[in-house]
Design brief:
Length: about 180
């Protein structure tokens, strides 16, 4: 499951709390990977059991104590192993709840399908707008982790996101046009 590797990747940048990891997964990379808060903490426990991460409790006087996680050498090894794995079987498995809805849409009225697709277009446009807001912040993220050249790879993922959602909008509009032909 890639969540554990996403967490290892984040911890490879710097030590983080579970809260920091959760916040980072919600932005700036939420357009291509997200997780529920409970999943993050469950994975942190599993990663600790594998000895891929360790934690230390940081005592704070004015706030509750916090648990700071960091990646171990074993964790770095696992991250590099996973990054270099060329097995595409898991990557090629695609799940899309919208496509399941469209697949079975002969069971509802055409206007309901068009409303669904119109809403999907709006959601895709919102994601693109949010990504546009995140784009100027990439240099600040890179500076915060004290690693150069990360923005090059982050830019690749952002470009994928823009192209993906633009294509989704194009596809949904095409579907709406096809549905209008049936009216």
């Amino acid at each position: 499951m890639p969540l554990k590797h996403a967490i290892l990747g984040l911890l490879n940048y710097k030590e983080m709390t579970g809260y920091d990891i959760d916040r980072t997964l919600n932005s700036p990379i939420a357009f291509f990977w997200h997780a529920q808060t409970s999943q993050v903490y469950k994975e942190l426990n599993a990663l600790t059991k594998h000895n891929w991460v360790v934690s230390e409790t940081v005592v704070q006087t004015d706030k509750p104590n916090k648990k700071l996680f960091s990646i171990t050498e074993e964790g770095r090894y696992e991250l590099k192993r996973w990054l270099g794995d060329t097995n595409m079987e898991e990557l090629m498995k695609y799940k899309n709840p919208l496509l399941i809805k469209i697949f079975f849409s002969s069971n509802i009225e055409l206007d309901e399908i068009m409303r669904l697709l119109t809403q999907y277009i709006k959601e895709c446009e919102t994601v693109i707008m949010n990504m546009n807001e995140e784009l100027p912040q990439i240099p600040a993220y890179e500076e915060a982790i004290h690693q150069e050249n990360e923005s090059f790879y982050w830019g690749m993922t952002m470009t994928y996101g823009f192209m993906y959602y633009q294509n989704e909008i194009k596809w949904a509009k095409w579907c709406i046009d096809k549905l209008k032909e049936k009216i």
